[in-house]
Every structure is written in C-alpha cells, then in structure tokens.
Amino acid sequence: MLSYRHGFHAGNHADVFKHLVLTLLVCSLLRKEKPFFYLDTHAGAGRYDLGSAMARKNREYKTGIGLLWEVEDAPEAVQDYLETVRLLNPDGKLRFYPGSPRVVRHYLRSADRMLLCELHPNEVKVLSEEFAGDKQVKIHHLDGYQALKALLPPPERRGLVLIDPAFELRDERRRLLDALKEGYRRWATGIFAVWYPIQDRATADDFLRRLQRTGIRKILLAEFSVFDSDETPRLNGSGMVIINPPWKLEENLRTLLPWLWKKLAVDGQGKWRVEWLVGE
C-alpha cells in the first residue's frame, strides 16, 4: 500500500523535531573538509505547500513550524534550522516547508553528494522536479530499504543515512530493522538516523527493545512529545535513534529539547528525553 502523503503532516511538531536533529547531524559533518554522503531512504516530495488542500485539511503545521516562525529567542542551532525554512519563504510569510532533502541540500558543499529514494510515484515525480538539473543530487524510484543494500557503502566513507518511513505497513518495523542491520553491516562507521512515531508507549518501547537486540552498538535515543502518550491513534510525539552519533550531539540535544518542548508542548503535556539505548 502506498497511500501515505506527507503533505498532510508537513511542518508539524514531529517534522520540527526531526529536522532540528537532522540539522545538527549535517552540521557535524561540516566540521571536516572531506566530502560527505547523504542517503535519504524515504525522501518524500522535497518541499511542501502549506497552502495546499492537503496541508489545510488538518493544519498540522500550526502545532510545529507555525509556533516557531516568529520566535526571536531561538538558540543558534534552532536558528540554523529555521533558516532552511526561511529560504523557501523570502517574503517572510510562511507558505512552504522543506522536506528532509531540502534541509540537507542547504548545507551541501560542492564535493558533497546526496542520494534520494522514494517509492510513491507521485512523490518521486515532484521530488525529481524539485531537484531537476542539480548534479549533486541523484534520485532513485526505489524502495528505500533496498537502497541500504544496493547503495552502501559510499566511496566517501563518511556521511549520514536518514531512515524515515511512513509506518503505514503492518510489518514496517520488522522490515526497517532487517534493512538497518544490513546497512550497518555494510557501513559500520556511517551515521544512521532512524525516525519513529510515538502513538502509544507500548509499541514504541517494543520497537526499541527489538533494536537493542540487533547487536548494533553506539545508539543514542532522543524522544520529543507534545501530548501525553496514552491516547491513540493520535501522533503524541516521535523519536529518533542515532547510530554512531557525532561528538556533542547528546549535549546539544539536552540543551535544545527543553527549549523546544516549552514552545510546542500542548498545555504542559508530553516530555522529552535523551539517553543511550546501547553504549559502546
């Protein structure tokens, strides 16, 4: 089934959290002059029109980027993320929101490289149009899980893989973990960032326990919720697990997430946490 369209959810609290973490990860790669490689296994459309019928249906962006758009006291890392949004809205009015590929493209240097995978036929068409003529970006109409086997390891030997599926299939978590193990086996020194939804605590915890049993080491966990986790099927929050996290990521997240939670939490609900799921 390929019914999921991210346009309904673009710019919501989960997107803000995910793209803030992504910004921190990419900026960490910029500390060294050597080129880096970025692979997005579920790239989506690249950018989203918040004035579209999809975005207007539930107006989820109002729970996320809409609350930060005019904030003036944002920490530097949050300002870096917000800059990627502002570049798509040069008139100062919030209309477009960047998907993960557009966030990362902002930071690519001339020798860096980005590979984007998307299986949905409509989304991959829009994605191809978004990056038409961009020689640093290559787009594959491909199952992102297959890409972890087909496209790793990269010749650059340093970089980042983002795995951000829709979680619309019953066996999504099993497929994700199987593909992640294969990708890690092929590129054990790469950074892998995996996003997952938090609708109920039991499902999220089961996924994390299964990840712990993979044998993969050095896994940092970050979670961010704006609602309490006892109501389903609402998206109460989301999490990211980062394999081989860069230096100072844990410290930065512990500083940034409390600030973000105060801005986005609904009536003091939800919470954030940063901890090691698996150590060295």
UniProtKB/TrEMBL annotation:
Which reaction(s) are listed as its catalytic activity?
adenosine(2030) in 23S rRNA + S-adenosyl-L-methionine = N(6)-methyladenosine(2030) in 23S rRNA + S-adenosyl-L-homocysteine + H(+)
* List of catalytic residues: D164 (proton acceptor)
A UniProt-annotated Pfam family:
RsmJ
Q: Does Transferase appear among the keywords?
A: yes
Q: Which domain of life is it from?
A: Bacteria
Supply the alphabetized keyword list: Methyltransferase, RNA-binding, rRNA processing, S-adenosyl-L-methionine, Transferase
Top-level enzyme category: transferase
Q: Where is this site: Interaction with substrate rRNA?
A: Y4
| InterPro entries, A to Z | RlmJ, SAM-dependent_MTases_sf
Claim: rRNA processing is one of the keywords in the record: yes
Record's Gene3D superfamilies?
A: Vaccinia Virus protein VP39
Q: Which residues bind S-adenosyl-L-methionine?
A: H19, H42, S100, E118, D143, G144, D164
Name the Gene Ontology molecular function terms of this record.
23S rRNA (adenine(2030)-N(6))-methyltransferase activity
Give the EC number: 2.1.1.266
Tell me the function of this protein: Specifically methylates the adenine in position 2030 of 23S rRNA.
Q: Which family does it belong to?
A: Belongs to the RlmJ family.
Assembly and partners are described as: Monomer.
Query: What is the protein named?
Result: Ribosomal RNA large subunit methyltransferase J
Instruction: Give the source species.
Output: Methylocaldum szegediense
